[in-house]
């Protein structure tokens, strides 16, 4: 394929996990527009991933779709290897892949917790660890948390537990990388108009959640992608170990 024939070693390269859906899709397109070659990671929907790559290439960018289960260490290793083989370097890792499964904190919902932690927390550990091992000075690791941590809504227990764990990992890894010149941060969006957000919600529920922000609307995926691009770009070089709550004032 044309994008992988000859690595452009002067072009910055980003991996975006979950890069073909929702916020990850917006991040993939934004980073490509900012001049990055983008490795679009996806879990299972190859059509969506290939469409994302085609859109980036049609706009003059370079991209590659790579399937990987981010909770599987072998798959994560292969994702990073493929990225470097295709583009010759790696500068930024954006870890946006995740799941949201609702369920109250009850004994019979333990499977929901296990599935959520496997993807959201174990996956974050694996991707962030591999990023820390792969990036050189000036590299950026950008994880995803959620502003729902500040709300503690019923039914979000497993999701909030997983994202609280991610925030802890970000802060610890930021300290562990002392002297490496690699920044580690997380973006914690508020409610954003994505398929994952709308799933299972009535129009009334959506309207009530949108009203939580003083702006009285949902965030757009592109607004989150703009913040990721800031962290990945030269303006974000002095931001480290932070959780950026990008939520329209929903506190």
From TrEMBL:
The keyword Oxidoreductase applies. Residues 12-190 form the Ketoreductase domain. GO terms for molecular function: oxidoreductase activity, acting on CH-OH group of donors. Keywords: Oxidoreductase. InterPro entries: KR_dom, NAD(P)-bd_dom_sf, SDR_fam. It comes from the Bacteria. Belongs to the short-chain dehydrogenases/reductases (SDR) family. This is SDR family oxidoreductase.
């Amino acid at each position: 394929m044309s994008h992988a024939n000859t690595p452009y070693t002067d072009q910055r390269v980003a991996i975006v996990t979950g890069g073909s859906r929702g916020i990850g899709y917006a991040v993939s397109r934004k980073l490509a527009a900012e001049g990055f070659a983008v490795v679009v990671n996806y879990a299972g929907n190859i059509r969506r991933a290939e469409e994302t790559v085609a859109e980036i290439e049609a706009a003059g960018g370079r991209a590659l779709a790579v399937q990987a289960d981010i909770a599987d260490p072998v798959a994560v290793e292969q994702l990073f290897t493929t990225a470097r083989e295709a583009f010759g370097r790696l500068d930024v890792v954006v870890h946006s892949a995740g799941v949201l499964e609702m369920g109250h904190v009850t004994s019979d919902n333990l499977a929901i917790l296990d599935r959520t932690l496997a993807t959201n927390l174990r996956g974050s550990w694996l991707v962030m660890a591999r990023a820390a091992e792969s990036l050189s000075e000036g590299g950026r690791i950008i994880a995803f948390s959620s502003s729902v941590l500040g709300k503690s809504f019923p039914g979000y227990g497993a999701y909030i537990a997983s994202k609280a764990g991610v925030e802890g990992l970000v802060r610890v890894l930021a300290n562990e990388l002392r002297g490496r010149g690699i920044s580690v941060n997380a973006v914690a969006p508020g409610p954003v108009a994505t398929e994952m957000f709308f799933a299972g919600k009535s129009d009334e529920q959506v309207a009530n959640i949108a009203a939580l922000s003083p702006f009285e609307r949902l965030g757009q995926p592109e607004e989150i992608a703009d913040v990721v691009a800031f962290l990945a770009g030269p303006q974000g070089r002095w931001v480290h170990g932070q959780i950026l709550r990008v939520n329209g004032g929903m506190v």
